[in-house]
Every structure is written in C-alpha cells, then in structure tokens.
Specification:
It is globular, with a radius of gyration of 15 Å. 33% of the residues lie in helices and 5% in strands. By secondary structure, it is mostly helical. The chain has a two-stranded antiparallel ribbon. The protein has one domain. It has helices at residues 16-20, 25-35, 49-53, 62-69, and strands at residues 2-3, 9-10.
Length: 88
C-alpha cells in the first residue's frame, strides 16, 4: 500500500505488460488521463518534460484502458480544493 499525506491508502500496482513495451508508470498514467479526453497539468522536474511529451507517441488499447479504470477507488488526495477555505 502507498500512504498519501492525508492518510489515504491506495494499492500499489504493477504496470506489468505496459512497462514491457518501454513506457514508464508515469507515462502510462498520463496517457490514460489524456486518452480519456481529460486535461492534466503534471508537476514535473526538467528531466520529466521530454518523458511527458512521449505519451503522444503511443496509445493504450481498450483493454488497457479498462484494466486501469477498474483500479479507481474514487479517492482524492487534494483536500485543499475549495477556494473559499484555501490558505492563500
């Protein structure tokens, strides 16, 4: 299990066959988000910029998308998402 800062625990998953193709776990997750038509603004270190752009060079199959989607537990790690209570 991975414990987030707000004590939410999420199962640690292997990315199995996806990494056999050479993609990193970060790339697979970013690709899954983008392929669902969502916008993501990943925080990245300079050495991650090129890696993040490489998600546009591959796609996940429908089976891959479904397998990743089944991992959803409807948990959110951002507890400071209300602009009225955010400590600006």
């Amino acid at each position: 299990m991975i414990r987030l800062s707000n004590d939410i625990e999420i199962p640690q998953i292997g990315v199995g066959t996806w990494t056999l193709r050479g993609e990193t776990a970060r790339q697979i997750v970013l690709r899954w988000i983008v392929q669902r038509g969502l916008i993501t603004i990943p925080r990245a270190k300079p050495n991650h910029f090129a890696e993040n752009l490489e998600i546009m060079t591959f796609s996940l199959s429908d089976d891959d998308m479904q397998a990743i989607s089944t991992l959803n537990q409807n948990l959110r790690s951002n507890v400071l998402n209300d602009p009225e209570t955010f400590p600006w």
